[in-house]
Amino acid sequence: MLKKLLTTIITLIAIVVGVTFAAKNPQAVSISYYFDLAWEGPLVIALTAALVIGVGLGAAPLVLRVFHLKRRLNAARSAGPRPSTLEHPSQEAEELRTHR
User: Fold this and answer.
1) Full-prediction pTM beyond 0.70?
2) What are residue 29's phi and psi, to 5 degrees?
């Protein structure tokens, strides 16, 4: 309950900060890139686009890793349980750590 309340409060604060930032900075900016590519528009859209692109580029390796681990998990599940030849579960955990 407390976690949900805290998340809601932080989200509302972020929304208020974003809206007030947009209201206080209505000026247009011009962004130039290679090959004479240029864009002119509101500062808020430029910053929002930069944020979205940055989050996307940052999350891409995480998403790829999750897909890779899901494939490995499905392959391990389809192989079925393997008989344990180890005496202690801690030895099995140590063996898994060394195979990474």
Assistant:
1) no
2) -125, 155
